[in-house]
Amino acid sequence: SVDIANIYVSLRTGMCSSHLGLELSCLLHSVDAVRVYVNSSSENLQYPVLFVVRQQKGVLSWQVPLIFRGLYQRTYNYQEVSRTLCPSEPAPETGPSEQIIFVDVASMAPFNIAYELLVTRLESFQLETNKPFNFTASPSQPQYFLYKFPQDVDSVIIKVVSDAVYPCSVVSVQDIVCPVYDLDHNVEFNGVYQSMTKQAAITVQRKDFPGEQFFVVFVIKPEDYACGGSVPSSIHGELCWGLDFVHLPCVFPSSCCAPDESSSSGGRQLSSPERGPPAGSDTDSSVEEESDFDTMPEIESDKNVIRTKVFLYLSDLSRKDRRIVSKKYKIYFWNIITIAVFYALPVIQLVITYQTVVNVTGNQDICYYNFLCAHPLGVLSAFNNILSNVGHTLLGFLFLLIVLRRDILHRRAMEMKDTLLPHFSVHTLSSFLSLLAVPAFTFYCVPSIDTSFMYMIAGLCMLKLYQTRHPDINASAYSAYASFAVVICLAVLGVVFGKNGMWFWVIFSMIHVLASLALSTQIYYMGRFKIDLGIFRRAAMVLYTDCIQQCSRPMYMDRMVLLIVGNLVNWSFAIFGLVYRPRDFASYILGIFICNLLLYLAFYIIMKLRSSEKLLPIPLFCIVATAVVWAAALYFFFQTLSSWEETPAESREKNRPCILLGFFDDHDVWHFLSAAALFFSFLVLLTLDDDLDTVRRDKIPVF
What we know:
Layout: E1 5-12, E2 18-19, E3 22-23, E4 34-40, E5 49-54, E6 59-64, E7 66-69, E8 75-78, E9 80-84, E10 98-107, E11 115-121, E12 126-127, E13 133-137, E14 143-148, E15 155-162, E16 169-174, E17 192-196, E18 199-205, E19 213-220, E20 239-247, H1 253-256, H2 303-306, H3 322-361, H4 383-387, H5 390-415, H6 427-437, H7 440-443, H8 451-469, H9 477-497, H10 502-524, H11 535-549, H12 557-580, H13 585-610, H14 617-637, H15 648-651, H16 666-687
Parallel strand pairs: 12-14
Antiparallel strand pairs: 1-10, 2-3, 4-9, 4-11, 5-6, 5-10, 7-8, 13-20, 14-19, 15-18, 15-20, 16-17, 16-19
Pfam family, one: SID-1_RNA_chan
InterPro entries: SID1_TM_fam (IPR025958)
Protein name: SID1 transmembrane family member 1
């Protein structure tokens, strides 16, 4: 036998009416929406009850029990189902009109099945700006509502908050089209959408909706796994939601205001007086490139004899031809430009590609942003995050101008054959430091990709400090960048394997400790120790003969103290990583670089003061400003607003509203402050030894 029922429902849009015993109230010209609720006590999946709703603009159908399929082909059955029918709106030329709805109920069961059917008119279907709205939803009872742009509003943020423990749900913004995609398997077919657990935020602009209205759809997934929850568990309870619309302030007229009618002294280099610079440019073709071998003439002086002196002066470590040294450091400059170009272009391409995919598919789970403070412009979803990096560009060019001025003063002094020239070359190495800041804004578009350049900033700053007193034995550009390449490769492996691979942390900790020992030996013996497979055996032999057999005091006490402290710091990092295995491996490596940089800078300043040298007011001010600004910047850096290590829904739990001018968030403030902090940091490196501009190189100690 077949039990078939036809229910006729007549509704008059924009007018009050009473049908099926329902007392309804409405307002003229309001949008009517009807919700159908069904319930069946039958759990027999072989004979479900079928419901078909026929309207003027479409047909909607479902069955009870309603079946959803999840991970591993798990099924979730629901006996209660309710759906909102596609709403009707009175036409301005005809006024209120009658809409006829047919509800067909059928079952192929050989026995009678009891069911419950309830048709109600939604009293609160249209959402309002700045007015919170609460409602409930479940996997079998999705919800959607209508929002119309007021005349003076051009963009809004839809803020959604759920008080459930761990609901995995989807928030979608769809154009006014019937049928509405409000089920788990089709909600991603139209409009833009985000997955969420506790909160979500979608920015919507009037220009994207010609009808100046849209649906906000809420769908609950039957399991939490899609949002990062535990392995499948059914959600049968109802979830309570809160919804709010916030009017965006007008900051950029082109994107936020009403649409037009048709749319909707360093810097100088020293040559010893007795070996004045020959005529011609520093890039004289007669000067050959420096090779991997030390080109200092052994006939004039034996480097192994000079570098074993207990007290070294700068003249002892600046004996190479000035033109060769200048060409050596210019390689740094051109290599960093090449790296920046080849690094920036794929990133820009990646950003544009991802933004295009987001705009075409509507899937806002692809990119991780602070959606509670994301202001779109053109194809960019969070233009404020890019705009806030303008400080890096402006201050980077300002620093270039400062370096250029010092370089001009250096060349004038060379032309005057001034014998009291600065004691080291700074202009080329300082120039490339500023170039690191110029493309920096590009890498903030993609999470975690900027850390690789931060490694180079910290590493090259240490090389700059070391070059100040060791110009002849500083690392070449090729070896320095090759080392950075190895570090970046380790960082990539750490991101992939570092979360659960104990073996990776053991190998990395061993590499970290051995690299620290090898570098310490090279620094202590001023490059006289050959780095090969036998370096540790030779170092152990020296340690045995000098310290154990003779129990003598280290020949270079200052360097020994620095290296002991440095190794303790690095071994502590290695032990910490091995024990705790931090999830953010990229930040872990960055912390290693920053701590080593601060340690060496502190050592340099202490040794400078111990050598009776002075800190002039400008570098002293820069040091204080650097410390203060970095402290403030790091405070905002640690205000985590998103996390690319988690699912998009979990990441959105950390989203926060704007805190500056209603347009910038905590991370944007970090961009502003970090740009100023980098600028002052570079000024410290540039001006730290300005007190030695008139001091002869044979009077400047090496430490």
